[in-house]
Amino acid sequence: MTNKNVGLQPLRVPAGWFIALNNFYEVEPVTENIDYFFSAVLIGGENKRLGVSFDSRYEPEGIPGGEFVLVLQKQDYDKKGHITRVSVLDVKRTKQKAHFIRQLEEFMQTGKV
Predict the structure, then answer these.
(1) Alpha-carbon Rg of the chain, whole angstroms?
(2) Helix, strand, or coil here: 78?
(3) Of 71, 77, 47, residue with least CA distance to 59
(4) At residue 37, what are phi and psi to the nearest 5 degrees?
(5) Per-residue pLDDT band at 63 (split at 50, 70, 90)
(6) pLDDT at 39 over 90
(7) Quick check: 104 pLDDT over 70?
(8) pLDDT for res 40
(9) Has residue 2 got a pLDDT over 90?
(10) Where are the beta strands (DSSP E) in 23-82?
């Protein structure tokens, strides 16, 4: 059962990023908190200026001892700003939440793999 007093994970999000979905809470993926890791996407966002985006998840979903997965993507847009193509730049995996956060924040800061 989830604790209603748990907040979202604090992150450093630079200007220009649009966070489309955020189910990334300030808890570790251990048995008593595993309900927070039953989401297909933990957090996802895009930066049109940099032409990049990311999606993330926890695998296996809802199982303690899993991995954080960060999918880094390049996006192409048409003249109206609609996405025309998405290609995967890299997929990063780690069991350490702090490492996942560092990877995510670095990608948002630089837009590079």
Answers:
(1) 15
(2) coil
(3) 71
(4) -115, 35
(5) very high
(6) no
(7) yes
(8) 86
(9) no
(10) 43-47, 52-59, 67-77
The average pLDDT across 15-42 equals 94
Whole-angstrom Cα distance, residue 88 to residue 72?
6
pLDDT for 4 beyond 80: no
In contact, 104 and 22? CB cutoff 8 Å: no
How many Cβ atoms from other residues are within 10 Å of residue 24's Cβ?
A: 25
Q: Which residues pair with 91 in a beta bridge?
A: 71
- Residue 101 tokens read as 């956060």
Three-state DSSP state, 86: strand
Residue for token pair 């490492």: 99
Whether residue 17 contacts residue 43, with contact meaning beta carbons closer than 8 Å, is answered with no
- How far apart CA 50 and CA 110 sit, in angstroms, is 9
* Residue 82, token pair as written in the block: 């609609």
Q: With beta carbons less than 8 A apart as the criterion, state whether 37 and 62 touch.
A: yes
